Every structure is written in C-alpha cells, then in structure tokens.
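Methods — Computational structure assignment.
A single polypeptide chain was analysed. Its primary sequence is given first, followed by the predicted tertiary structure written as structure tokens.
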Amino acid sequence: MSLDACPLCQSEDIHFFYSDEHGIHYRCKVCDLISSAPKDLPSPETELARYDTHENHPDDPGYRQFLSHLFEPMNELLAPGSFGLDFGSGPGPTLNIMFEEEGHTMNIYDPFYADDRSVFNEEYDFITSTETFEHLHQPRKEIDLLWSCLKPEGHLGIMTKQAKDKEHFKDWHYKKDETHVTFFSKDTFRWMADYWKADLTFYDHYVVIFQKP
C-alpha cells in the first residue's frame, strides 16, 4: 500500500524514496517530509512494548543532560513563571521537572502514559516535545493541535534528529527503530515556519524552536 498524500502538508506530490528491511519510505516534494508506508506503521501494542523498554528517570544525570539540548535554549526564552506543556512526556517525565525547578509550571501529555486530553483545553506560553515527532502517524493533525494551544508569541520546541539525503538515510540508525515513522529535515521545518508564519531557530542537529506570531 503506497502513500497517497503527505501526512504533513497533504500534497500529493510524494514519491518513493527508499526501501530496505526496515520498511518503505516516501519523500514529499513540497515539504520534504519522509514518511513510512501505511503498512509499516506500528500498532499501539507494538509502540507501547517498545516504549516500555525506555529507562528514563528524573534522577538520571545522563538523561537530564540529553534533555538539556532543548531545555537550555528554551529556558533562555521564557519569562519568569511561564506555563508550558510537555507533549510526549514518556514513561519517566523529566523535562517538566527541570522547568519546574526553574520556577515554571507544566502540564504533561503522553498517549500511553499520561493520556489526559483536557490539557489541550489550556493555552500555553511554551510547548516542548523531545524525541516524539518521529513517532507521529498524523503529524499535521498533531502539530495543528499543539499550535492551537500556543499563545501568541509562545514557543514550540522540538527535539528530533533531522533527515538529510538518501546516502545518509541509507545507514541512518534512526530509521531502524520500528516506531520511528516520520522524519523531518531542515527544509521540512522551514516549510512549517512558512505555513504557520512563525519565526524559526535551529539550535543544533537535534533542536528547533518556533515562535508563534
């Protein structure tokens, strides 16, 4: 079963990109998103079994150091006492604790571990999402939802490894995780910034932060 339209920009100008034992992937000619074929999308049961193997804890200094790639630049942008949402907080929510230690308050959301969708009835000064966007089966739907919850001049910070060309993708460890199904490149993030009329800053090969107009 092929992919008929891009799950982000919804363009039909999407073409076969790469195939191996990890699945079939398509690349959009409009927004540059790389997406797995529908047949390769994991079931919720498969996803949960994979996420249950994650050993992330708030008292793990290594995990905190990893999250600091997003935490540090985002914290620099925030006014004192900002209100945020961590989207995709996982089995061991930690980023929210790091921000709360700095005097901010945060809600968390995770479809498997903190599935309280009432958090989307709030408006936020900032939203974070670490190592989550690569798991999205319907990125347009999910990002539209997050954007609608963000206050004007609010910030959306995303941590996900960025796709490059086919030669890089061929041996890329990131695609070997069966729950990684959506891959963003720098051009994808630029398309998103244009679409949402947002300011965009790249911080490293992990992190981008959008500011809502």
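Note: Residues 73 and 203 are 8 Å apart (CA to CA).
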